[in-house]
Design a protein that fits this description.
The protein is mainly alpha-helical and 263 residues long. The chain has 2 domains: 117 residues; 136 residues, Serine Threonine Protein Phosphatase 5, Tetratricopeptide repeat (Alpha Horseshoe), CATH 1.25.40. Helices cover 81% and strands 4% of the residues. The chain contains 9 helices and 2 strands, in the order ααββααααααα. It has a two-stranded antiparallel sheet with strand order 1-2. Strand 1 and strand 2 form a beta hairpin. Helix 3 runs antiparallel to helix 4 and helix 8 runs antiparallel to helix 9.
């Protein structure tokens, strides 16, 4: 029962008690003092008023009861709506947490994929290398093939080494390894006594010019090949040119010793 209904019923009870007391008083007066027609009429009017008051009281009580019932129903509906809202909020919170987890997982996968892609791409990116005192950029396959050819040469397999260097130079015509590859190709040819081929390789190295560290050694190697070919005149000319072009080098000192022996 609502507070409004409770107080309405209390007021009605008090009113009924007062009316009953008045009726008692007037009944007593009617018996003892007011037996005339006016007294009876007053009593009837009073009774009529009491009945009307009781009717109004009953109507107010009924309305208060209806209002209370309606209020209870409204409170129940509101409570149900609140529970439904809580359930929806909990569901949305759960969905939001799942979305956060899913997003975190997607971000992790994306990061892993990016790292993996970077690693794969890095395998194909040019790397800075240093060979014979020169630095340059070389592709990963380029460096791999040069190192493979050098590995064969170091094992003393000069025939296969020649093939490896020739294939390397054909595969990478603009490689930064070119002068070094020609030098070691010439050495491999010299080791297999292919002196003419070795001279061609060393001359190709020198023709590229520049300040490559192997140029004096290539000139000395040409003279050695010419000596093996019994061409002392050409060897002497090569050694003299070496002294002029690369003075102060170890190759120049070796050339001076050979010229002394040739004289």
């Amino acid at each position: 029962m609502s507070t409004l209904a409770f107080f309405s019923m209390r007021r009605a009870a008090r009113f009924a008690a007062v009316c009953a007391a008045l009726l008692g008083c007037f009944s007593f007066a009617h018996a003892g003092l007011f037996e005339d027609e006016d007294a009876r009429k007053a009593i009837l009017d009073l009774r009529q008023k009491v009945q009307e008051s009781q009717s109004r009281l009953e109507e107010e009580t009924r309305r208060a009861t209806d209002d209370s019932a309606q209020l209870r129903r409204s409170l129940v509906d509101l409570q149900n709506q609140l529970e439904a809202a809580r359930a929806d909020i909990a569901k949305l919170r759960g969905q939001n947490e799942q979305m956060v987890r899913d997003l975190s997982e997607v971000q992790r996968l994306q990061k892993d994929a990016t790292v993996s892609l970077d690693e794969r791409l890095r395998k194909f990116e040019p790397a800075r290398v240093s060979v014979d005192g020169r630095e340059f950029l070389a592709d990963i396959p380029e460096k791999r093939d040069y190192d493979a050819a050098m590995g064969i040469f170091r094992k003393g397999e000069f025939g296969p080494a020649q093939l490896a260097f020739v294939q390397f130079l054909n595969r990478y015509p603009k490689t930064g390894y070119r002068q070094s590859a020609l030098f070691w190709l010439g050495n491999a040819q010299y080791a297999t006594r292919e002196y003419k081929e070795a001279v061609a390789s060393f001359r190709a190295l020198i023709a590229l010019g520049g300040d490559h560290i192997r140029l004096p050694e290539a000139a000395l190697a040409i003279a050695n090949c010419q000596l093996e070919l019994k061409d002392s005149k050409a060897a002497r000319k090569t050694l003299e040119d070496l002294l002029t072009q690369y003075p102060g080098t170890e190759a120049a000192q070796a050339a001076k010793d050979r010229l002394t022996r040739l004289r």
